[in-house]
Specification:
Layout lengths: L1 E2 L2 H11 L11 H7 L3 E2 L3 H11 L5 H9 L4 E5 L5 E5 L3 H26 L7 H19 L4 H7 L6 E2 L11 E2 L1 H10 L3 E6 L8 E5 H4 L9 H16 L4 H8 L3 H9 L3 E6 L2 E6 L13 E4 L13 H4 L3 H4 L9 E4 L2 E8 L5 E5 L5 H18 L11 H7 L1
Parallel strand pairs: 1-9
Antiparallel strand pairs: 2-4, 3-4, 5-6, 7-8, 9-10, 11-12, 12-13, 13-14
Helix pairs in contact: 5-8, 5-10, 6-8, 10-12, 11-12
């Protein structure tokens, strides 16, 4: 069995994830493609993940890629999570994940509508008609917010209480349901937000106009093969369980996708996993590097088995739902955390002794990080113990 050292796995992080000097990306799309996708549940993550890997790339360049060049697209995919993906990967993600998500969400929403007595006995058909009318309204407008679309399609203002027996539950309209459904069906995309780059209040646009035509059709099996191939190229070697966790698929679906790839089983200290057969050549050790990665960055969120780069720091850097906060990296492992205070100061805390040279690299990254934000003061959507402590 092929063996790979922990040092080699960490070297791959520095090189493949464009964090080491000399390997950083020239464009936002280039950076995203090397990581497969960026987490986008927190809008600020997208900009900060790019900035950490492209020292000349700021919010303006990311916004140009998202909303002008449209080389990047924001979409729901694995685990019903929001991501930013390279435009050429969008059809793959839609076929591999989006179609199943759409079917699942349609069933869930139809059940809630039926329980509320909406739809005249056929809630699924009623929901489908509302979605079609919303899509037509968006085509007519070119782009619009949910509030604007609800003026064209009054049914979007239908209010449903999904848990009427719970004291915390409140009725809400179905606008977001219909927009999520149209998005997972590959018919609309999130366009420019109403606000700065950390805003999550988006307008919407039809795929036909935003991407110059409908999504290219992909068979689900082929799409899943290509998605796992891309993931293994960026995150391999890794155990099958990590692929299952990242994709959100069943173990059977993961094994079926792997059967379409030429992989090799490899071993490392404490475990075994898979690597693409054409990716056995060792990656040269990069020069020493440090990075300040934002909350939900795709590097720490890329694996479920994290001990080899996380060490004993989980309790301080992750919230109760498994979301990582801002983390400090040194040569392929996490060594601390950081935060932005209300006055814009970037404050760091090392959780282990890494030596003077590495600390100097981190100090330089912290100084540069202030420029990522400018006048923006986004609060991470998921607050972790160390981030809260640093900003108290």
């Amino acid at each position: 069995m092929y063996s790979i050292s922990t040092a080699q796995r960490r070297a791959r992080i520095g090189v493949r994830h464009r964090l080491a000097g000399g390997h950083r990306g020239a464009t936002p799309a280039e950076i995203v493609r090397s990581l497969v996708v960026l987490h986008a549940t927190d809008p600020a993550t997208v900009h900060l993940s790019v900035a950490a890997r492209g020292h000349d790339l700021g919010p303006a360049q990311v916004e140009r890629a998202l909303y002008e060049d449209r080389s990047l697209v924001r979409m729901l995919a694995m685990r019903r999570t929001m991501f930013v993906a390279p435009v050429d990967l969008v059809p793959v993600l839609h076929a591999a994940c989006g179609a199943d998500l759409a079917a699942k969400q349609r069933r869930i929403y139809a059940r809630y509508l039926e329980q509320a007595g909406i739809g005249g006995g056929d809630a699924a058909s009623w929901l489908g008609e509302v979605a079609d009318r919303t899509h037509r309204a968006l085509l007519a407008r070119g782009s619009a917010t949910g509030a604007q679309l609800s003026k064209d399609v009054p049914e979007l203002r239908t209010q449903i209480d999904t848990a009427p027996e719970k004291s915390y539950s409140r009725p809400s309209n179905i606008t977001s349901w219909v927009l999520v459904l149209l998005g997972t069906e590959g018919r609309i995309v999130r366009a420019r937000p109403n606000g700065g780059w950390s805003s999550s209040q988006y307008s919407w646009a039809p795929v036909e106009s935003w991407l110059s035509g409908p999504l290219r059709e992909f068979g689900i099996d082929d799409a899943r093969i290509e998605l796992v191939r891309a993931w293994l190229r960026a995150f391999g070697p890794a155990p099958i369980g990590d692929i299952k966790w990242w994709t959100g698929w069943t173990l059977g679906q993961v094994r079926k996708a792997l059967a379409g790839l030429d992989t090799v089983e490899v071993e490392w200290e404490g475990g075994t996993g898979l690597l693409l057969a054409d990716d056995l050549e060792p990656v040269a050790d990069p020069s020493p590097w440090a990075a300040l990665l934002p909350a939900l960055d795709p590097t720490p969120m890329g694996w479920q088995s994290r001990a080899w780069y996380l060490g004993e720091h989980r309790s301080l850097l992750f919230d109760r739902n498994g979301n990582i906060g801002p983390s400090i990296w040194c040569d392929g492992r996490i060594v601390g955390g950081w935060a932005q205070r209300k006055d814009g100061e970037i404050v760091t805390r090392l959780l282990e002794d890494i030596g003077a040279d590495a600390t100097t690299l981190i100090d330089a990254e912290a100084e540069r990080a202030a420029g990522w934000f400018g006048e923006m003061r986004p609060i991470p959507r998921f607050r972790t113990p160390l981030e809260r402590e640093l900003t108290a």
